[in-house]
Amino acid sequence: MDVCEIVIHRLVMPLQMRFETSFGVQTDRDVILLEVRTQDGYVGWGESVAARSPLYNEETTDTVEAILRKELIPLALNTKWAHPSEFFKKTLFLHGNRMAKFALEGALWDIWAQQQGLPLAQAIGGTKSKVDVGVSIGIKPIPELLQEIEDYYGQGYRRIKIKIRPGWDTEPVAAVRQKFPHVPLMVDANAAYDENHFPTLLELDKYGLMMIEQPLADNAWEEYANLQSQLETPLCLDESIHTLEDALRAIHMKACRIINVKLGRVGGIQAALELTKVAKEAGIQLWCGGMLETGVGRALNIAIATLDGFTLPGDTAASARYWNPDIILPEVTVTDGQITVPPSPGLGYSVNIDQIARYQEAQWHFRA
Ligand code: OSB
Ligand code: MG
Questions:
Q1: Which of 70, 118, 203, 338 falls between 20 and 30 A from 82, CA-CA?
Q2: Domain Mandelate racemase/muconate lactonizing enzyme C-terminal spans what residues (predicted)?
Q3: Ligand 1 in contact with 317 (CB < 6 A)?
Q4: Looking at 89, 206, 262, 277, which residue is catalytic?
């Protein structure tokens, strides 16, 4: 793989819905798409899943752009890549900045899968032809919440996730459970609680939730182990898991039973493949999380969710929930709670340059 040109596309895309979590409100995405070109004419695409401000984690679209410009793009242009798995090791000397790394690494995997003539899902060892999906619904007044759940559950989504925060937890959960006693339901707190809230978190145990995602701070390992030991409901870690070492620590400490894998948060596909192996051996269930991705990030999520370690529905909902229009063709659609994995080589969707132009704020070319 001889990378000869990389283009940074910087876009602002208005979201079709207002998305409120414990850390803030999102109404658009400030996003970087990376276009990577090789000497022999292949084009691969990657996406930075970082947000405008460091609210979910410490990276932002601006830090991703800076690290791409200064470190990762020069390195990618000056290396002969035999296989995309090399990227993870060759960039380990650069601390953190995993979302920046994944933006570039994802594009290398897309190219490599195209060169093999394989859908990315198959190229990374995925076995499924369809993936199960759920939907993540933001904080909103209870009547709207109930209406949305009715709509999405009616459309076939296989799991409903609602966002909670201190003061907004048992009340919405009880309301949802009263109206939908059998809906597969879970909650995500995005790290908003601490030890003082244990009574409330323990109260959630009685609602038959599939899991409670990231109730505590990302490094609250002892507290997670303590909480999980008192709960029947599985805990799921999202923000806590940055590396394979974090996953090993979670397993060793019995801090959770489920891990939400986000490719950007763990630094890419190679890192996710290694984590999947370890989690599977330890009996930890996995599912693919979401970061309100465009179609490019969505295609990468679909591919990783085809691994057989991914046993629970993910957060990759249909394109139309987020964008009008999305920047890929065809758009991602969900039928009966499943996405059919595209059969064509690489990401399996074509990137629509005309739609990118509609959202684009700037683009910069870098050549070897
Ligand atoms: O915690 O899973 C999360 C979105 C942005 C940041 C963090 C999270 C989320 C979601 C939305 O829950 C998932 C999606 O629909 O892409
Ligand atoms: Mg989460």
A1: 70
A2: 142-234
A3: yes
A4: 262
Query: What residues make up the domain containing 258?
Result: 122-340
b/e sequence 87-114, b meaning 16+ C-beta within 10 Å: bbeebeeeeebbbbbbbbbbbbbbbbbb
Whichever domain contains 250, its CATH number is: 3.20.20.120
> Same domain, yes or no, for 111 and 127?
no
Q: Is 238 in the pocket of ligand 1 (CB under 6 A)?
A: yes
**Interface ipTM above 0.95:** yes
What are 9-49's pLDDT values in tens digits?
A: 999 999 999 999 999 999 999 999 999 999 999 999 999 99
Q: Which of 136, 140, 241 to mutate to test the pocket of ligand 1 (most atoms within 8 A of CB)?
A: 136
Number of domains present in the structure of the chain: 2
d(CA 169, CA 200): 8
Q: Is residue 345 part of a domain?
A: no
Q: Hey, what are 324's tokens?
A: 């009008």
pTM value is 0.98
